[in-house]
Amino acid sequence: MKSEHSVPTMKDVAREAGVALGTVSKVVNGIPVGESYRLRVEEAIKKLNYQVNSYAQGLKANKTYTVALLLPNTEDPFFASLAYHINLSLLKRRYRMLLCCTVNSDQEQEYITMAQQNKVDGIIGLTYNPNLQIEENTPFVAIDRSMGSKIPCVASDNFAGGQLAAEKLADLGCTNVAFLRIGSSLDNEPNKRKAGFENGCLSRGLSYKMKILNDGEPFEEFTRFLSEHIHDGRLSFDGIFCVTDRLAYLIIKTLRQLNLRVPEDVQVIGFDGIRVFPGAEHVCSTIVQPVPEIAEMCVNLLLQENISAKPPLVCLPVTYVSGGTTREGEI
Amino acid sequence: MKSEHSVPTMKDVAREAGVALGTVSKVVNGIPVGESYRLRVEEAIKKLNYQVNSYAQGLKANKTYTVALLLPNTEDPFFASLAYHINLSLLKRRYRMLLCCTVNSDQEQEYITMAQQNKVDGIIGLTYNPNLQIEENTPFVAIDRSMGSKIPCVASDNFAGGQLAAEKLADLGCTNVAFLRIGSSLDNEPNKRKAGFENGCLSRGLSYKMKILNDGEPFEEFTRFLSEHIHDGRLSFDGIFCVTDRLAYLIIKTLRQLNLRVPEDVQVIGFDGIRVFPGAEHVCSTIVQPVPEIAEMCVNLLLQENISAKPPLVCLPVTYVSGGTTREGEI
Asked: Quick one: which H or E segment has residue B67?
């Protein structure tokens, strides 16, 4: 006997939507169906306030409808934005997201093991530990770092972004530019920004110098590098590409302390597309990473059933946005 | 028969640590034990690489060792910091955290229902929907908003923070100040900043004016308000308290567009303690919310077994930090 106020079942949803039970199941489980079917099922789900009991469903299907996201933290604005958009991409497919912030790279292995033992359906990870062990039966999608041919990697097109930065500086009238980098020396995707920038400089005839620090080297090395290139109060560079907006932010402060005006004396372009607050302007002129598209791609690749069809590396297009540290107005 | 490489069990941990099995169980489940016991157990867990199988454990104990966090998003820097610290507080107790970003307040009820059906052990929520229904058997801790006597609310001491802002402006030589607010008119904890500020102004003899906008009212109302208080190029306020750092950030931009210098012509204090990047300076002089302490308190209250002992409202102390939009140097 069914009471008037019983919890709606998948059958009720199928009846309401006028589709087969299997179609509802597919939609609920994130398996592609025709757009019009998906919309009808989603409408019925909403109307009946049908709730997937993922826990019970997990026991039955040996699925948990849960995905773990490994990130260093959510305080860095780029990671914060990734966490938000991956969360939205999962929730709209009725998957739950476990957030695992990895204070240091030692914890990455611990959380991956934990996630596997908790039988998550997959893991999306932005990790730094070069020796991570990932069991083959746990689907994994890596962000920004290739981890072998069986694990898809999703990233911005970092090479094209570096090249775009050089081209923009050339368009903006620069002739003598610098590339500044600090960070992990791990062989990861963002490190392609350098090669792309060099390529752009060469193709546009820009002279360039590079100053590259590894994690742990003092920031003052940049200050010294810049000071060494000041003669009679003038910086010999008219453009600087910084490998992240965070670095650009610090470099702009340093330039101002050295009595150089940005963008009048030197134009600066960063990378990432960070804003102080959502909706506020960018912190600098920047190559913007397509975070919502990266999130969608990670989730799609992770939940795709046909593993053999998964591409090893997906690079998504970046865009340039002026953020007040370049001289667009004058051209 | 036990193989050499079998997965370590709780018994192995107890043997390694030299403690009773029950002590290991308590540590693993986040139940307080003596500090020295906890350290020994944690060391043994690390040494043996013991992994709690929360999923199996959940089936046995009817517990999932999972907590859901409801937040509007992780792109706003204050929410991003909350998500990070709550994640750390849960992970160190070996609880998993489901992140549920609620793009709009309609979704809050949906995610709470979903979390309940997924049998999470509890929910921590920073929500705006005034009509949320929460089942009594799901422990819930609210951030920034009282939701009835059975649901503990954790917040900064917003009243004291407002008062501190007024006192600081008085200490910094201001005599005629303004209070600016935009946001939800919901009866929540952050709205006590206004009363605290008024109280501080009265006790220190500051003249003050207030300009309060509701969500949806155009920001230009603030520009008009400020313009109306400029006579012969001078603003009649020498200090402004903005209800958030985000508002302060926008107001400082507006003041500069009105040819007013910050902090020379007018000093500005915000609220929250936002930095552009972790470790960078604050975006303005500000009342800093104790985010790690808020996170710990939420998790402690949520996982505390004895419900009757839970306080209805916990207000945690705030601090003032100069961030370049006030004139500390001159005093």
From this structure: strand B66-71
